[in-house]
Amino acid sequence: MSGDEAAEVYLGIWRRVLAERPDALWYPTINLGPAAQWYDHISPLAESGLLRMGVSDPGSVNMGVRVDGLPVGSFVYANTFDDVAHQLDLCRTHRLGPSLAIYEPGFLRTILAYDRSDQLPAGSFIKL
Fold first, then answer.
1. Confidence of residue 75 (pLDDT cuts 50, 70, 90)
2. Looking at residue 112, which CATH number applies to its domain?
3. Number of independent structural domains in the chain
4. Which of 69, 88, 90, 124 is the most exposed place for a label (fewest CB within 10 A)?
5. Distance CA 94, CA 121 (A)
6. What is the 3-state secondary structure (H, E, C) of 42-64?
7. Residue 126, SS3 per DSSP
8. Mind listing the pLDDT tens digit for each residue in 33-51?
9. H or E element, residue 106
């Protein structure tokens, strides 16, 4: 689904929620599909005036586990440093505080580097 189509799906739902709970904080997840399109819905959502938070997964992680807890599989959820820069640029451009999921220590190192260089978007929400 295109970024505009995904934005319309979110807005259709969130307009109803915000009509009853105007103070609700919400943010979208990534748009499924090719990685190059994961964040194409952020700009139209921000331009709607209803979005105050963005999203960034600032790193990569191997995912997959067997029932007994041992790692298995070959799926890697990958966000390159260029991807992270794009995610955070979108947040700065649209004045969104990003929700930052920290799945692995490398995610935190990336965010700390942005913080030390004073480039972490205002309103960043770090989830450890």
1. very high
2. 3.20.20.70
3. 1
4. 69
5. 10
6. HHHHHHCCCCCEEEECCCCEEEE
7. strand
8. 888 899 999 999 999 999 9
9. helix 105-116
